[in-house]
Amino acid sequence: MALITDKTRDEVREIVFDFFAEECEVDKQTIHDGTNIIKDIDGDSLMFLELIEIFKKKYNLDIELKVIGKYAVKHPVTTIGQLIDMQMLIIEHENHLLELER
């Protein structure tokens, strides 16, 4: 489990914005927290999986995809801001993510 700092949040935001700008071929300046990943920039769920792998490597995370999947079913992500918030929880809590619901 990692300590979340403002620097971490800024890094995550930058990676997410850069990733979607490149993958969806949109201007990074048009992406904001309220951007709907599917409706506004034609993103998809496979992109989320790619991002998870990027963050697993960057932050040396120990988390199983099934844990993220179970959490995401109860807490669906539709916007960039929601995705960033979920990624912060994944970094902070890793495999203990589901314990947040208790």
Describe this structure in words.
- The protein has 102 residues and is mainly alpha-helical.
- The chain has one domain (6-97): Non-ribosomal Peptide Synthetase Peptidyl Carrier Protein, Chain A (Orthogonal Bundle), CATH 1.10.1200.
- The chain has 4 helices and no strands.
- The chain has helices spanning 6-23, 45-58, 65-74, 80-93.
- Helix 1 packs across helix 4 (80-93).
- The chain is globular.
Descriptors for this entry?
102 residues, mainly alpha, 4 helices, globular, single chain
Query: What profile does the largest beta sheet have?
Result: none
Count of DSSP H/I helices? 4
Q: What's the level 1 CATH class?
A: Mainly Alpha
**Class from secondary-structure proportions:** mainly alpha
Helix content: 40-55%
Count of spatially separate domains: 1
Tell me the CATH superfamily.
ACP-like
Number of strands: 0
Rg measurement, Å: 13 Å
Q: Estimate the strand proportion.
A: under 5%
**Average of the residue pLDDT scores:** 94
Which geometry do the CA atoms define?
A: globular
Q: Which parts are unreliable, with pLDDT below 50 for 5 consecutive residues or more?
A: none
The SSE string, one letter per element, is HHHH
Assign the CATH architecture. Answer: Orthogonal Bundle
Distance between the termini: 18 Å
Give the CATH topology: Non-ribosomal Peptide Synthetase Peptidyl Carrier Protein, Chain A
